[in-house]
Hints:
This protein is α/β, with parallel strands linked by helices. It has helices spanning 3-28, 66-77, 93-104, 122-133, 190-195, 220-226, 246-254, 262-265, and strands at 34-38, 47-50, 56-59, 82-83, 85-88, 108-109, 112-115, 138-141, 146-149, 152-156, 173-177, 180-184, 206-208, 230-233, 259-261, 268-272, 277-282. Mean pLDDT is 91; it is low at 19-28.
Amino acid sequence: MTKKQRLTAISIWIIAVFLFALSIYVGFIDRGYTEVSFIDVGQGDSCFIQTDNMSSILIDGGDRSCGTKILIPFFKYKSVMKLDAVFVSHLHDDHITGIEELINSRFKIAHIYMSDKVTQSKNYNDFEKLVTANNIPFTFMNDDDKISIDNVTFTAINSSAEHSDENEHSLVLRLDCGANSILFTGDISSTTESEILSDSDIDTDILKVAHHGSAGSSSIEFINAVSPELSVISVGENNKYHHPNDKTLLKYNILDIPVVRTDYDGTISIIMTDNDIRRLDFSRKREG
């Protein structure tokens, strides 16, 4: 071996040791804050959570092209190489297609969770086949099931009733991070809202408004039971469904609850410590 070759081999070894040590350090680092990002995926839902120890979690993935054109670039920007957990609210295209694209792109996903009330349908069969073919473990969450990842805990709040509408079978999730809490409602309507009204776990600080702010969701009784300090609407700009509905927005206005929305504000990021919410960031500045 020549002197140049020896120097090259030593350099490679040093770099390898450094990267190994860095990976161990990152695995134990505590940033002191958790970031929750409601990603602007147009007319759909997707929320990314990165814990204080840098674990990465996704709730829904938006519609066609969201996985390849929005989520993967977002993950690269955040230096995210894998998802430790993916929660699927329900199996409509504007929630799962982006996840399917991640899987087809061989993006590493450690585990997938969905509601035990999921409807057996073509979408379910196709999704299960894709997940199984890629050896991704998946778990059905029952009511009150809890998943803890670092400093964040997710609790399933599922209606016990049977419905013909897939929206009503959405996995409703409560996120707890220290003193902070967020309620994710998928696409449930006022029907399912009324069924979970008595559940004390719906009283949270932040509400991800159900079904993109449609007229069929956000009953006054439900909003009062949640009593959020902030509401977030994931919705596409100038969408054909005219979401969010004006009457729905009026309810939040009457109750003096601030509303932020992805069509106006872009990706909405909430930086929180275990004790409080430190900052609210937007990727887009509202016009006017």
